[in-house]
Amino acid sequence: MRKVCVVGATQTKFGAMKETAREAAAEVSLAAIQEAGITPSDVQALYVGNCFGVSESQAHIGPLVSTSLGIPDRPTLTIESACATGSVTFREAYMGIAGGFYDIALAVGTEKVSHLDVLTATSYFAMGSDYSYEGRNGISFPGLYALMATAYLHKYGATQEQLAAIAVKNHANAAKNPKAHFQKAITLEDVMKSRTVAWPLKLYDCCPFSDGAAAAVLMSEERARKISGDRMYVLGSGRGGMTAALHDREDLTRMGSAKQAADAAYAMAGLTAAHVDFAEVHDCFTIAEAIATEELGFFPYGEGANQAAEGSTALGGDLPVNPSGGLKAKGHPVGATGLGQICEVWDQLREKAGARQVKGAEVALTHNVGATGGSAAVHLFSR
Amino acid sequence: MRKVCVVGATQTKFGAMKETAREAAAEVSLAAIQEAGITPSDVQALYVGNCFGVSESQAHIGPLVSTSLGIPDRPTLTIESACATGSVTFREAYMGIAGGFYDIALAVGTEKVSHLDVLTATSYFAMGSDYSYEGRNGISFPGLYALMATAYLHKYGATQEQLAAIAVKNHANAAKNPKAHFQKAITLEDVMKSRTVAWPLKLYDCCPFSDGAAAAVLMSEERARKISGDRMYVLGSGRGGMTAALHDREDLTRMGSAKQAADAAYAMAGLTAAHVDFAEVHDCFTIAEAIATEELGFFPYGEGANQAAEGSTALGGDLPVNPSGGLKAKGHPVGATGLGQICEVWDQLREKAGARQVKGAEVALTHNVGATGGSAAVHLFSR
User: Fold this and answer.
1) What is the ipTM of this complex?
2) In the beta sheet, which residues pair with residue A183?
3) Chain B contacts of A257, Cβ < 8 Å?
4) pLDDT in tens, A206-248
5) A379: burial class by Cβ within 10 Å (0-12, 13-18, 19+)?
6) 8 Å CB contact between B94 and B234
7) Which CATH number does the domain A4-116+209-224 belong to among 1.10.730.10, 3.40.47.10, 3.40.50.80, 2.40.50.140?
8) Does the annotation count B83 as an active-site position?
């Protein structure tokens, strides 16, 4: 397998956008290509992540993006793995290069939901659950994650305030991120007083519906050495899976797919959790970040929420988590989210993250989950 | 890159089915795994092709299939490339093995549309076009292919009867295929007298909306040598692309993406069109098969329809095309179609195709197109 580098990565500001998903995808793709110092004609394949194109009556989005870039004769495909779509799309592009099929590939994720009312958007999201048993019977993702949160609070004696601290931290980080959906700091009291969405999760425990697009240009190391721009290395790529339905799981406080993906990525990189300088983690709800930081090996089980409350994962803490603001505050444009995490890593490892810069970071991890963990992808990057 | 084999491939009967897309996918996956003589736990990754899961309110179908197979911890993803979905899904699984990421992978395509009324189904299909310019303005796929057919008849002086001969041939083949949607022979008069859908295409020039699922188990050659069952080799895999919108093309009688995919597959295999003993070709409309047989290098431009009328592509002809009955008569369950073509090749190369057996075939080609050619995939197989 060949070594693979990222040589360009850009994203839109997350939040409601005027562009269609296809337009936003083309915009960020071109920007990433330009950042890489190459031209669209150098790109040999396009991997597009998108979940809800049907809501814009547009499937088969790949040829539209390639045509917008002036390279309609490139192979394209669309990938969907619910909320893990962006990272799974990146993973497939990575495999295409590592396996020797391509030297240069583009991975782009895009999503638009702001044209939908909240009920319709919630219904679309619920299609990522085991719909016959979950969505159809009235439980959507806030409810599913609330079950996980309830089990977590019960099992470990954790508190709602500890979960709320995760929201406060991520909003503080997003306030320093011009690409974030919510660039506003909040207080613990704001979270605790916000209305209950699905107990124990309150409004500020939940990520927003966002529009957005994010793209990364991947190159074989050999090819990357021939260009003059920045590059970062993909040290590890891991995937995991588990049952889509919560009712099939033995322990609602665990997300084995994330551990599986992380273990695979660590093994490929020859690293452990101790080597990670910061992480972009899938925090669709505050409980998700608590569990993720445990499954990734950062903290013992039951310690994730507490460590966040103690400040370990703050920007100046021992292990900054979600310096971008995370899904919680940077936003969650489903098909783009995982690639947005990679854009953050790209900025951080090149010391271009401005006020939210993690000082001296050399190894970064991204963790992206589909639905309640049915899909997971973890990647490790270095300068 | 490693050599890759198919070691099991099964499909449902195409046509309206009672099962949901997820159920059908699980069924054919298990059957293909059993045919390969392995167990589900041997499968390391699942690649799922599906286009219209949203119509059943079910996205993120991978973990549902893996859970049904008892292997929820396997990585999964869903791939969509409009009507080329099945072959593009196969291609990604192939790359995963050829590139050394997996030794055994499952590619499964599944689709259900029979729960939709015709107008809704047509609307879903139209999402595969450049919707902002085509579908939204009232042109759906019969109309788009009718434009191509009109240009073809005009440019080459071909006749509607020559196109109709393709339908007659494919129905004759499907009449010998117990897995076909329409197992009924038709006459040239039946086609010519059937009502006009979009001139010059008549009802019998058009493929049906079908439900169905098809799966293939892929193995590295090294691993395949350790099992006792049948295997066939993937000799070549090629992809191509072109503009989604017809208005961006210089010549409506050409489909450059198919030629591009074929040339790539031939180059990988070290073969030419002359080596192909039979082909499963994307004949969503009769005109599509005429053009395909030209782009694949079987006949000169303008000769495809005429050669079909002359019998060259009949079961007993020089180069049988669509012995299965093709999309036209075997059926077209979008996400499953390309994998269904591979199931036919699997049966033919093992001399298990019954009354529609192509005698002594050693090299077979599959050709699968998304929409009007925006995506294309071609694969070459041998015993």
Assistant:
1) 0.98
2) none
3) 73
4) 999 999 999 999 999 999 999 999 999 999 999 999 999 999 9
5) buried
6) yes
7) 3.40.47.10
8) yes
